[in-house]
Amino acid sequence: MNRPNDCGISSHVCNNFHDTIEFIGKRWMGVIIYTLMSGPKRFHEITEGIPGISDRLLTERLNELIKEGLVIKKQLEPSTIIGYELTDTGMELKEVITAIRNWMAKRTTL
Amino acid sequence: MNRPNDCGISSHVCNNFHDTIEFIGKRWMGVIIYTLMSGPKRFHEITEGIPGISDRLLTERLNELIKEGLVIKKQLEPSTIIGYELTDTGMELKEVITAIRNWMAKRTTL
DNA sequence: GCATACAACTTACCATTAGTAAGTTGGATG
DNA sequence: CATCCAACTTACTAATGGTAAGTTGTATGC
């Protein structure tokens, strides 16, 4: 039987696995992060790129991402317009996204 | 709002990044899959290994995982007791979990 | 074979979160 | 300085999750 800490690495990291996967797995989180992978975007560019998402939820998710340091609000060159950009930490999720897409590719060929 | 399923492979997970990450990111999905990575488990072994999860939600998530072909219900040797085991497809999510854990390890806060 | 215990659900009800839509604010543009 | 529209905010409804109690089924002991 698995105990919560019985994972072979440090218990701190192990105990955070649940929080981590639930955070990045929250509704719309994945596609928002994925959308920002291709570069900084304005609010309405994100909504237009993600069919079905509402302003309210995008605001909420972006604020959560900012709070967790995965996204920053940034002034876009050369105007005064602001947009949202992945931080280095956020950008490092690329490997997670790649792993998911690899898994998907294997699965659909079955 | 759920977009219509246009691939016909399964009801939730198809070759679409959004559906896939939302499926494996559903509440408790990550830890359930992670728990089963170390081998087949009985129902109560899973609940005991995941503090906070309820019988109702574990039943619901296991049924979703079975429906999507990530988990099978299996008779555990040598008794008549049944348990839950990851399929090959489910087990291949190990790389996704590894990628998340690597990302976590790099981070300073969450 | 009957009683007990516990595992594995199931149901019911309340709380939280998501979806929808309308309203508000504030900066850009004519 | 009026209009537009991006970027929120608020209010309300629908869906999902949390909690707890109830039900069914199988193992074990007498």
What is the top-level CATH class of chain A? Answer: Mainly Alpha
And the CATH topology of chain A? Arc Repressor Mutant, subunit A
Summarize the biggest pleated sheet of chain A: 2 strands, antiparallel
Poorly predicted segments of chain A? 1-14
Averaged pLDDT of chain A: 85
- State the helix count of chain A: 6
- Structure class of chain A: mainly alpha
SSE string of chain A: HHHHEEHH
Spatial gap, N to C terminus of chain A: 31 Å
Write down the overall geometry of chain A. globular
**Overall structural domain count of chain A:** 1
The quaternary structure here is homodimer
**CATH superfamily label of chain A:** Winged helix-like DNA-binding domain superfamily/Winged helix DNA-binding domain
User: Beta-strand percentage of chain A?
Assistant: 5-15%
Strand line-up of the largest beta sheet of chain A: 1-2
Task: Provide keyphrases for this structure.
two-stranded antiparallel sheet, globular, DNA-binding, 9% strand, 55% helix, 2 strands, 110 residues, 6 helices, Arc Repressor Mutant, subunit A, mainly alpha, homodimer
Provide a descriptive summary of the structure in words:
The structure is a homodimer of 110-residue chains. Chain A is mainly alpha-helical and 110 residues long. Chain A has one domain (11-108): Arc Repressor Mutant, subunit A. Chain A contains 6 helices and 2 strands. The first copy, chain A, has helices spanning 11-24, 29-36, 43-49, 55-67, 88-91, 94-108, and strands at 71-75, 82-86. A two-stranded antiparallel ribbon of chain A has the order 1-2. In chain A, a hairpin with a 6-residue loop joins β1 (71-75) and β2 (82-86). At the A-B interface, α1, α2 and α6 of A face α1, α2, α3 and α6 of B. The structure holds a DNA duplex (30 and 30 nucleotides).
